């Protein structure tokens, strides 16, 4: 797996982790809910673990769906790329047009890897999403 691709998504996860830690007050362990602590623990795990294992994906799906369902103030901070990365139930939060864009990006990435061609994931992502 392309290390640039891994690094890009790890950075997104670390950004979400920081936002969640600052938005969810756990300074008083007596008042912090078990759900809050579990969510933060899962985000900590995702931001630091070896990516792309079964546990990584199931934990990611669970954490993102939990944020959307129970932490609406955090949901806008979830990068769309993470919904795509974790897939499964997370895809319910993406319109079909957006899914097609990420499919196209993945197809280009896979084709480049298959042909042993350098692929700048962030640059191609920006191009496909019309960010440049």
Write the layout of secondary structure elements.
Blueprint: H1 3-23, H2 34-48, H3 54-70, H4 80-86, H5 96-114, H6 121-128
Written description of the protein model:
With 132 residues, this protein is mainly α. It is built from six helices and no strands. The protein is elongated. The mean pLDDT is 91.
Low confidence ranges? none
Helix tally equals: 6
The helix/strand series, from N terminus to C terminus, equals HHHHHH
Mean pLDDT rating: 91
Supply Rg. Answer: 16 Å
Total strand count, please? Answer: 0
What structural keywords apply?
mainly alpha; single chain; 132 residues; 0% strand
Brief overview:
This protein has 132 residues and is an all-alpha fold.
């Amino acid at each position: 797996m392309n290390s640039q691709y891994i690094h890009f998504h790890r950075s997104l996860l670390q950004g979400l982790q920081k936002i969640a830690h600052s938005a969810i007050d756990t300074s008083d362990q007596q008042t912090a809910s078990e759900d809050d602590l579990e969510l933060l623990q899962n985000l900590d795990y995702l931001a630091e673990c070896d990516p792309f294992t079964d546990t990584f994906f199931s934990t990611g799906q669970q954490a993102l769906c939990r944020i959307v369902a129970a932490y609406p103030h955090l949901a806008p901070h979830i990068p769309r790329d993470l919904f795509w990365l974790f897939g499964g139930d997370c895809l319910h939060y993406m319109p079909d047009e957006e899914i097609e864009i990420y499919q196209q990006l993945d197809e280009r990435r896979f084709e480049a890897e298959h042909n042993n061609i350098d692929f700048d994931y962030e640059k191609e992502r920006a191009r496909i999403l019309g960010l440049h």
